[in-house]
Amino acid sequence: MATPHIGAEKGDIAEKILLPGDPLRARFIAENYLEAPVAFNSVRNMLGYTGTYRGEPVSVMGTGMGIPSLSIYAYELIHAFGVKRLIRVGSAGALQKDLKLYDIVLAQGACTDSNVAFQYDLKGTYSAIASWDLLAKAAEMAKEQGKTVHVGNVFSTDVFYNPLNSEQHHFEKWAGMGCLAQEMEAYALYAVAAAAGAEALAILTISDSMVSGEETTAEERQNSFHAMMQLALAI
Question: For residue range 62-113, what is the model confidence (pLDDT) as tens digits?
C-alpha cells in the first residue's frame, strides 16, 4: 500500500532500484534505459518508474537532496515495498586532485558530520560501508566495460554551503584522511540498508572539484552521466 511519500502499491516497485537525487534524472534514466517504463510515483514530484533492463525488472526513483530526504525514501522502499538492492547514482565533489570531472567513484565507505546514526542507539561511531557483493560486481563490471573507477571513502555532509570550506579549506581535513569526494546521501543509504538487511551501493560521478574549482552545469548533471548509469544498471 502507499506510504506518506510514495504513492505506489505492493508489486509496483522492483527489488532492485536506482536512486538519483534529482527526480528529473530518474525520468531520464527511465526514458532512455528502461523498456516499457511505468510511473509509480509523483507524490511531491519525486518521480519513480519501473521497467525492465535486459529482461529484468528495475525501478528508478529520485530521493531529493540530503540525508533526511534519502533516509525517508530508502526506509519506505525497503520496509513497505520490499526493495532489496538500492544503488545511489549521484553527483559528488572531488576532494583529491587526481579526480577529474565525470570520473566515477565507487563509495566503499562513507564518513559523515551528520548525527543520523544516533537513531540506532549505538555506543560508538558507526562505520557505514557498501555491500561487498554490489561493490565487487561494480568494480568487475567497470573493468569489463573499460571504465576507470576510483574506489574508496567518501564524505557525506549535512552542509552544502559551508563557510569553512572557503575560509579555512575545511574539506582538506577530510581529503587528508583519504576521502575521495564529498556528497550528501551515501552514509544514510548505507546505514538504513544495513539496519534492514538490504544491500546498498553509491556510484558517484564527479560533477565539480573542491580542489580545482571546476564544475558541470545542472543540465549536464541531469542528462550526461551515462557511464555511471550504465554501470549501475549492469550490476
Answer: 999 999 999 999 999 999 999 999 999 999 999 999 999 999 999 999 999 9
Whether 103 is catalytic is no
Beta bridge partners of residue 8, listed in sequence order: none
As a whole number, the mean pLDDT across the chain is 94
Q: What are phi and psi of 217, to 5 degrees?
A: -85, 165
Look up residue 202 and give its three cell numbers: 553509491
> By the 8 A CB rule, do 120 and 164 touch?
no
DSSP the chain: ---SS----TTSS-SEEEE-SSHHHHHHHHHHHSEEEEEEE-GGG--EEEEEETTEEEEEE---SSHHHHHHHHHHHHHHH---EEEEEEEEEE-STT--TT-EEEEEEEEES--GGGGGT-SS---EE--HHHHHHHHHHHHHTT--EEEEEEEE-S-SS-HHHHHH-THHHHHHTT--EEESSHHHHHHHHHHHT-EEEEEEEEEEETTT--B--HHHHHH--HHHHHHHHH-
Is 90 exceeded by the pLDDT of residue 123? yes
Q: Which of 12, 22, 103, 208 is catalytic?
A: 208
